[in-house]
Amino acid sequence: MLNRYPLWKYLLVLLVLFVGLLYALPNLYPEDPAVQISSARGDLALDANQVNRLESALENAGIAVKASEQDGGTTLIRLRHADDQLPARELIAERVNDDYVVAINLAESTPDWLAGLGASPMTLGLDLRGGVHFLLEVDMNAALTQRLEVNASAMRELLRDERIRYRGTEIEGRTLTLAFIDEEDRDNARRLIARDFPDFDYQNLGEGRGAALAMTLSEQAVNEIQDYAINQNLTTLRNRVNELGVAEPMVQRQGPNRIVVELPGVQDTAAAKRVVGATANLEFRLEARPDTPDAETERFAFRNAPSRSADLMRDVIITGDSVSSANHSFDENGRPQVNINLDGTGGTLMNRATRTNIGRNMAVLFIEHKTRDRVVLENGEEVVVREPYTERGLISLATIQSALGNSFRITGLDSPTEAAELALLLRSGSLAAPIYFVQERTIGPSLGQDNIDRGVMSVMIGLLLVVLFMLVRYKVFGVIANLALAINLVLLVAAMSLLGATLTLPGIAGIVLTLGMAVDANVLIFERIREELRGGLSVQQAIHAGYERAFTSIVDANITTLLVAVILFSIGTGPVKGFAVTLSLGILTSLFTALMVTRAMVNLTHGGKPLKTLRI
Amino acid sequence: MKSLVNRQFDFMGKRRLAFAISGVMLLVSIASLLLQQLNLGLDFTGGTLVEVRYAAAPTLDAVRQTLEDAGFRDVSVQTFGAATEVLIRLQQAFDAEVGNQVVALLREGGSGVDLVRAEFVGAQVGDQLRDQSGLGLLVALGIVMLYVAFRFQYKFAIGALLALIHDVIIVVGAFALFQWEFDLTVLAALLAVIGYSLNDTIVVYDRIRETIRTSRIDDMPAIFNEAINLTLSRTLATSGTTLLVLLALLVLGGDMIHYFSIALIIGIVVGTFSSIYVSAALLLAVKLNREDLIPAKKEDPEAEELP
């Protein structure tokens, strides 16, 4: 018989619908404003007593607590009102020590039974919840130069050990050039170096007193160095971002040399940028003796008193990379200080250097890689050139009282904030290569809420208009198409939630557009049914033929649009991607609703009945 | 609207007029693209943009003066949506704190100022994005053409491609003509227009193919007219619903998707027009005939019995 579905098809439609509803459901539960307290080291959870004390402190301050829960090292305190979030965070941060990171967060309130099924609401993009987006570029040339410098000093040491005389080293691009007195030294050096440094391509240059050895990093070695630099930077940035106390941060590689950092909810962009982009490091060096030859010393000014300066040895005892943990506090006089713990090797080196130099001064040198933009004239055009430069300044110069071991403290910092940031940087590690900000977006929270309100509003109005239009034009079939449209929206939301897609403003626009286009398939079918009726077919035959003949048009038209959406996704970034995801999912769900769901409804209501006329 | 269906419009008879209209629109678009160029947004040019909200509406000249006195070059200040929201653009290269500096500067003026958003795009990123987007558009067009050639026939693919290029040029041309800002969301809209216009074209083509196979006459313009008339009410209904939704977006969606909606509205109007007058009429120009569809007949054994 015409227009009857086998039972399994109805069941399939019902099943999809049920699953769709289930996974769309979490979006109806509003998120709770919350404060998240996580352990900086990953394992030290707050105990129940501490949590109770925090809760009562919050209650005393007039902040209503909804609930609190613990999951591994993380404690989540849910609040009743969003306005309380910031004061609650400050209050809690005062009461827990440096080992914990306190962040504001929006906690899902999906009921347990739903969460157990893996259902969760859509994540909101930065444009909807506010926050900062950074695009950072890793300076690959600097990474190469750094590596070459390390190699150069290792080679010089090797040559010194073997008593081969060399005149100097020069680094240009990816090539390191060593100059020698004569060819014999050069050839000996080449044999030695080539054995230990397989990453280079070697080439002899010049002769006699001009003999030199050019060593160029191989393509493969360059790739490895670059990969290493970006991965190391990713790790460091993740550590830092975690330390910043941001809930759900994102740190991701993009392309060969870029890193995207997204920090939802962060409003103080200046602080976020200082920490994310900071390239600060420390060096510990001994102060030069009055009789030290000039070639072995360097003069540095104090950071907070540029008129004072001191001569330091060129040799570095250790750098900040040897720090295993660091936190800030105040000394007896209330001045900020940073307490440092060194790792094993660092501790040994520090002990060896200080043991034999009791009574001498040791300096702590603060090093920062910065860039400045300079406008230069190039072929008559103004071009902005980015110039990297390094700032080095003494932060402390103190007498070694006794041999130092693994832990000690440094003072001489400007402010508690500086001490806190230095401690943070030392904890999270330094960057393997300098990074630059190439893109930055800050979305205020008010704009985010505004965008949500406007987006939801236009979806509602748009939907309403389409529903009215379909009712007027297709009567009973209009009701069916409208039901399908509602189901389409549910399925789309469910698919986006299930895939963990991020909802952005262009994403909402994509939903709206999909809804407008979703009725297209139904319109095609209904128009075709009308036409077949006019052509003299019976009601049942017309319905059957309408679906049958509209099928190829619908599939062709949607596949081509889907192709465009997929291309959009693959070339797009950020907002364009969000739009593409919504559009593609929307096409798929609207294909399903138009071809299966409306058919099921039409079959159920009209199929198999001896109808004389059709209200369409 | 029902009455439209039964009446036969002689679409193909007016195709010369339509070609003339398309020609004029294309000329104006290309001319304004060449003469005025696109007003590219921050995404493509690089630069700094700061949006702030004042408690009370400021005078723009005062804001501009404050910033210029502080040494910012090439400052553009305009209101954005409401009189209290001010959008500040700086061509100047990026300095780590520009966003905060601007807000701090404006706060010194006394009235309450809140940062709504701050964006910075490096010039290099902008350049790359521009190249990437152009490439993306070309790839999209190429793949779509292959698909149409595969599903229909190469003459259809040429028609569809020219129709899409027609639509893209006119939408982009409108942005150049009125100097509307062309940013990433507009690019997304442009790609959606391609998808939409193609959707329209395919529906018309599908019907043309079907009508050619089933009709017994060889008068192509008449066949085209019939096919287009048959799909007309569908075309109007779909464009109508989509336009309704887009109008809702335009009016209620806020400033950040204002130009997105405009691009789509223009694109859908032009796309509907082009699916009839460019893609279908071009099939006449490339002399499509029944034999072109013979390979397709093999898919359908019944069709082979047709004369």
> CATH superfamily of the largest domain in chain A, called what?
Multidrug efflux transporter AcrB transmembrane domain
| Uncertain regions spanning at least 5 consecutive residues of chain B | 1-5, 296-307
What does the radius of gyration of chain A come to? 34 Å
N- and C-termini, Cα separation of chain B: 36 Å
Oligomer: heterodimer
Question: What's the main sheet of chain A like?
Answer: 4 strands, antiparallel
Low-pLDDT residue spans of chain A: none
The arrangement of helices and strands of chain B along the chain is HHEHEHEEHEHHEHHHHH
Shape of chain A: elongated
User: Mind telling me the CATH class of the largest domain in chain B?
Assistant: Mainly Alpha
What's the CATH H-level homologous superfamily of the largest domain in chain B?
Multidrug efflux transporter AcrB transmembrane domain
CATH architecture of the largest domain in chain A: Up-down Bundle
Q: Treating each run of at least 4 consecutive H or I residues as one helix, how many helices of chain B?
A: 12
Query: How much β-strand is present in the residues of chain A?
Result: 25-35%
Q: What is the topology, as strand order, of the major beta sheet of chain B?
A: 3-4-2-5
**Mean of all residue-level pLDDT scores of chain A:** 82
Largest sheet of chain B: 4 strands, antiparallel
Termini separation of chain A comes to: 22 Å
GO cellular component, one term (chain B): plasma membrane
Function (chain B): Part of the Sec protein translocase complex. Interacts with the SecYEG preprotein conducting channel. SecDF uses the proton motive force (PMF) to complete protein translocation after the ATP-dependent function of SecA.
Subcellular location (chain B): Cell membrane
Subunit structure (chain B): Forms a complex with SecD. Part of the essential Sec protein translocation apparatus which comprises SecA, SecYEG and auxiliary proteins SecDF-YajC and YidC.
